[in-house]
Write a sequence for this structure.
């Protein structure tokens, strides 16, 4: 294949902590590894994380106001056509209280007037109506206007889960924009540091207890599910401890311990850890079982599930409207209905008591991750959808 220049527009990039930034970091480095050149246009920080020499990070989006966008536009014009733009879309990540219509107008102008080839990766579509205050309803309406603008400009759209295609497609207003599922990868590299794993197990399970983990941000409404599940799981008399991995895990622990003080020494919390920190990989690998309940069900956009999946850790989770068929077809995870928390605890107990079942679940998890979610496959799928032609370097076209 010929070398291609990609222009990835992202609201964040490491060392900023965030799932979208981690995804862009992995994708950009993999595209560069195949011989392409990648320009990442993002909002701060001033000193981006290092990576492949074929990746150039340009933290020029600033506050995403018209002046910032005009400056980025002039820089983009320094690259010859066709300019392949891959926009990472999360409406609330582009400022202006998630209603940055000016940004979407600028994207529309880039595609319609400047001739850029726009592809959109939809991580999150828009807010729902009637789930909050009138302000949220107003934002939900503006999000749909922004969606119309973006789809009127896009050549193609990618979705992190097929559910988003159903949500977005009506706003193409009859325009034939091809949609494709592009799974997210785990954003936590598998370090394979056996000594670090053994050290963690000695720290959190000194008497040989089984370690049950949860990885996430501990936000609503997942935390209330954990507050119900964890005391009942630990209170069954099984020889296990709980490990909360992620920001606000300590707050979740404290709330559970206030209601059940006897669990204070059996629940541990790590706090926030960067996805690129090898300690995070070791923490996941140290777990015998992960509990990952989601009110809308497991889906391929849940990077908090993909990380333990990549590490081959058995997982108990939930199914729902967001759940793709692959999770049932592959049996890579154990699933119950999100309202059946008693059944959730029962599944976790079953796996904790059956080492052979955990080994089978671990093997299935690794196989599914390798088939769908490795970054090499994702980059290959992305590249196959684009025309590939040798492109010129910057400064060959007037500003």
């Amino acid at each position: 294949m010929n070398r291609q220049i990609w222009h990835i527009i992202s609201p964040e990039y490491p060392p900023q902590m965030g799932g979208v930034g981690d995804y862009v970091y992995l994708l950009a480095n993999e595209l560069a590894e195949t011989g392409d050149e990648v320009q990442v246009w993002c909002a701060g920080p001033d000193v981006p994380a290092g990576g492949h020499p074929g990746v150039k990070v340009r933290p020029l989006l600033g506050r995403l106001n018209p002046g910032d966008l005009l400056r980025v536009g002039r820089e983009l014009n320094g690259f010859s056509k066709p300019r392949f733009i891959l926009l990472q879309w999360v409406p609330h990540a582009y400022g202006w209280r998630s209603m940055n219509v000016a940004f979407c107008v600028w994207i529309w102008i880039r595609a319609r007037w400047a001739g850029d080839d726009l592809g959109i990766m939809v991580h999150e579509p828009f807010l729902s109506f009637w789930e909050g205050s009138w302000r949220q309803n107003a934002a939900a309406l503006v999000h749909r206007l922004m969606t119309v603008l973006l789809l009127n400009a896009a050549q193609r759209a990618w979705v992190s889960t097929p559910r988003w295609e159903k949500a977005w497609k009506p706003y193409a207003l009859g325009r034939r924009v091809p949609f494709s599922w592009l799974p997210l990868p785990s954003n936590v590299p598998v370090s394979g540091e056996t000594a670090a794993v053994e050290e963690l197990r000695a720290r959190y399970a000194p008497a040989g207890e089984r370690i049950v983990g949860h990885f996430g941000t501990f936000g609503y409404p997942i935390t209330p599910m954990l507050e119900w599940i964890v005391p009942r799981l630990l209170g069954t008399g099984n020889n296990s401890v709980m490990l909360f991995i992620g920001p606000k895990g300590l707050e979740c622990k404290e709330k559970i311990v206030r209601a059940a003080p006897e669990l204070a020494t059996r629940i541990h919390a790590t706090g926030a850890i960067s996805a690129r920190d090898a300690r995070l990989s070791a923490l996941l690998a140290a777990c015998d079982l992960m509990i990952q309940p989601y009110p809308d069900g497991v889906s391929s956009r849940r990077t908090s599930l993909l990380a333990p999946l990549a590490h081959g850790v058995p997982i108990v989770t939930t199914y729902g409207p967001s759940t793709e068929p692959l999770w049932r077809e592959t049996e890579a995870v154990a699933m119950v209905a999100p309202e059946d928390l008693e059944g959730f605890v029962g599944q976790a107990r079953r796996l904790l008591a059956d080492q052979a079942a955990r080994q089978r679940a671990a093997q299935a998890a690794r196989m599914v991750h390798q088939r769908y979610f490795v970054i090499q496959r994702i980059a290959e799928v992305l590249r196959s959808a684009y025309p590939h032609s040798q492109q010129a370097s910057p400064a060959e076209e007037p500003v």
In short: The radius of gyration is 22 Å. The domain at 194-373 is CATH 3.40.50.2000 (Rossmann fold). The longest strand covers residues 5-10. Residues 3 and 36 are 5 Å apart (CA to CA).
